[in-house]
Amino acid sequence: MAVLIGFIIDLALSPLLPFASDIIAGAVAGYIAGRSMGRGVAAGLLAGMFGGIVLAILILTIMPFIMGYLSPILGPFTALLPLVALIPILLTLKGALLAAIGGLIGAIIWMSTKGK
Questions:
Q1: E strands, 1-116, where?
Q2: 40, 54, 102, 110: which could form a disulfide with 34 (CB 3.0–4.6 Å)?
Q3: Which residues cross the membrane (predicted)?
């Protein structure tokens, strides 16, 4: 449940706060998962990964339509267009890392307020 809530928060805040949304979503997921720092980091990591995967699907769905228009504009650099497929992978890694850090923060907050 913590991962799902973190994922939804990440999707809702991504357009408004691109980098902070991952940390906030991870912190919420980590706080809900609570009990230990490992659970918080895991919840944040999964929430960030799911958000990145959704973004990757969107990018990879739209790019084939845009590539036909970009090819004439880029000229000799058209050979670099397949590297666009790396963008979703990098964005997923960024989201997972930031959300894992947020999950750690959320777990620490849970442990200090309710905790052990």
A1: none
A2: 110
A3: 12-33, 45-67, 79-110
